[in-house]
UniProtKB/TrEMBL annotation:
Keyword Hydrolase: yes
Record bears the keyword Hydrolase: yes
Record organism: Advenella mandrilli
Source organism phylogeny: Bacteria, Pseudomonadati, Pseudomonadota, Betaproteobacteria, Burkholderiales
GO molecular function: hydrolase activity
Short name of any one Pfam family annotated for the protein: Gp3-like
Stated name of the protein: Hydrolase or metal-binding protein
Keywords: Hydrolase
Length: 297
């Protein structure tokens, strides 16, 4: 295995509750009140929809996808949801510092270092919103690929806090059968003083709609027994995933750099676009000036 490369769960597509919209010629992130399931292919029009998006939307209310039936790949909650304080370079989108509130891995002039992490409120580098909580949740949708997942990325406190709590609760009360439970991602909304009455949407994790706790546990037990009969080793899968994730300092793929910038620093996106437009305009003016000079000469 290549050292220094974090091996993440295989990803088949993306789950989001937002989208990138164009306003005044600028592409900016915009929150939504529903899920969107996309492939990993992005065109000029945006991310291409995954066939599952249309399939699940057909059975939804008013065509809005507000819940997704899912299952989990791992029994360990921290393997399904990786959440850390993260600081990215605003230009390249590459991770510069990732911490858990106690220690952090930081890129310095002396190379990669492990340093104390005081959290967002106590860190000089975190000032100005540079460092944010960043969560990545991997889930399975359907049964076409038993090891393939869809990833939901979020910088929202509400989603990260709720998902983390639910994962640990379900693991505890199911008797460590988290990967066998029939679950569902669900959109919820709330208003706060800071939102000034505007709804804030976040993601919750619940049992499948219409299922009681007893029914869900019974199905989980049946799934567990069936997997054991097939020699499916859940503990070994979790152990391998844990080792793979710790193989690198940072989880983020360089190919995801632009998506990180769009999510983390929308102000930087707008500023960079302004700079690009100004540079483009200056180039055009210089070309026109050169042509005019040539004609006069």
């Amino acid at each position: 295995m290549i050292k220094g490369l974090s091996i993440t769960p295989p990803v088949l597509g993306r789950i989001s509750i937002g989208r990138v919209v164009e306003r005044n010629g600028k592409r900016l992130p915009d929150k939504d009140d529903q899920f969107t399931i996309t492939t990993q292919i992005q065109t000029r029009e945006g991310w291409m929809l995954h066939p599952l998006d249309e399939h699940l939307r057909k059975n939804s209310t008013n065509g809005k996808l507000r819940s997704i039936p899912i299952s989990l790949l791992f029994n360990d909650p921290d393997l399904n949801l990786r959440a850390e304080y993260s600081l990215f370079d605003r230009i390249t989108g590459r991770p510069m510092c990732v911490g858990n509130g106690e220690t952090c891995r930081r890129v310095t002039t002396a190379g990669m270092q492990t340093l104390p992490c005081p959290g967002i409120d106590g860190c000089e580098m975190a000032k100005g919103g540079a460092c944010k909580p960043y969560g990545r949740l991997n889930v399975k949708i359907g049964s076409d690929d038993e090891l393939g997942t869809f990833i939901f990325r979020t910088t929202g406190y509400n989603s990260i806090r709720t998902l983390a709590a639910r994962l640990h609760y379900f693991k505890a009360i199911s008797g460590d059968l988290l990967a066998c439970l029939p679950l569902e991602l669900r959109i919820r909304g709330k208003s706060t003083t800071l939102s000034r009455g505007t709804p804030i949407y976040y993601v919750d994790l619940t049992l499948r709609e219409g299922m009681t706790l007893e029914e869900a546990f019974t199905q989980a037990q049946q799934t567990h027994v069936h997997r054991q009969s097939l020699s499916f080793n859940q503990q070994a899968l979790d152990a391998v995933a844990r080792a793979n994730l710790s193989n690198g300092a940072f989880e983020e793929d360089p190919d995801e750099a632009q998506a990180v910038i769009d999510e983390f620093y929308p102000d930087a996106v707008a500023k960079n676009q302004d700079v690009t437009q100004k540079v483009s305009l200056n180039d055009k003016l210089e070309k026109l000036s050169t042509k005019a000079t040539a004609v006069l000469n």
